[in-house]
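Design review, sub-item: ligand-bound model
Attendees: FS, YL, KQ
YL presented the inputs for the NAP complex:
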Amino acid sequence: MILLVGADGQLGRELSASLGVLGHLSRWTVGNMDLADPDLESRLAGVELPGLKAVVNAAAYTAVDRAESEEDVAYRVNARGAELLAGLAERHGAAFVHYSTDYVYGGSKAGPYTEEDEPAPLNAYGRTKLAGDRLSMAACPRHIVFRTSWVFSQTGACFPRTVYNLARTRDSLEMDCTQRGAPTSTELLAAVTLLALRGVLGRGPAAWGLYHLVSSGEATWLEFSRHIVSRAAELGLPVRLGPGAITPRSVPDLSRPAVRPLNSVLSTGKAEETFGIALPNWTYYADRFVEGLRYQADLR
Ligand SMILES: NC(=O)c1ccc[n+]([C@@H]2O[C@H](COP(=O)([O-])OP(=O)(O)OC[C@H]3O[C@@H](n4cnc5c(N)ncnc54)[C@H](OP(=O)(O)O)[C@@H]3O)[C@@H](O)[C@H]2O)c1
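KQ shared the predicted structure:
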């Protein structure tokens, strides 16, 4: 049995669709287990899950700007919640699979960050996620932690969907060209999670540790948004905005409370070697995202 926590988030929905092939999948949402609950420790202490092989934690407090004024709540979910879920896995002799963020890094490095680079989070969200990485890895030695970035999905509220919606109604748009990262689809994250879990279930080598897991290539938000609207126009989707009408903003948006790292490109050599995978370029998944929009439009 595998327990999936955060089953209703972007990644949780993708994992819900793919992990069932491994055996019984039990899904927890905020509705049946609130990780911010001050009584979480005692609630989890009473949980018995016979046959539990892995806890996969896709739950997180992900409101990056709101976390600046709610760091205590974000900490309860991202740090203490992750630690207690890792403890639940450990108590059952199960593995713990967890997801973290590029925002644990400070962004001043010239090249891609490796797993060995020292984190230096610039915002409250990054601090709480980093604490969660450390606490959960200590609580369950049989852990796999994937640090990823700029996550998008076919079903959730995410950056490319926002861009597409704006491109249908706006004639111009400004987009940040200072931050660099790798847009990463939940499809990729779920596919590699499945591979990693095969090892956990004894069907391959188990590869415990911390990994960077993102698409290959890199982009700015400007490049990502231009790619989305170009592809949408090519597919005949109803966009008013052409890529040239998205103009660069070369200073950070000071109206947002949380500071973001300028460079959060992550090196993925360790994951590629360990899991025997080649990570597709982010444009592959961005194109699939836009094709999915066409299908959704056809259904309306
Ligand atoms: N989104 C990104 O750009 C990004 C970038 C880097 C890393 N990550 C990491 O990737 C993982 C998956 O992120 P995602 O994009 O799938 O996030 P998401 O769509 O925001 O999903 C997070 C899930 O956690 C749930 N959750 C929030 N507070 C909770 C609580 N107190 N108790 C239980 N569940 C709670 C949410 O429920 P509600 O929706 O009902 O609140 C939601 O279902 C996270 O670890 C995140 O930190 C994300």
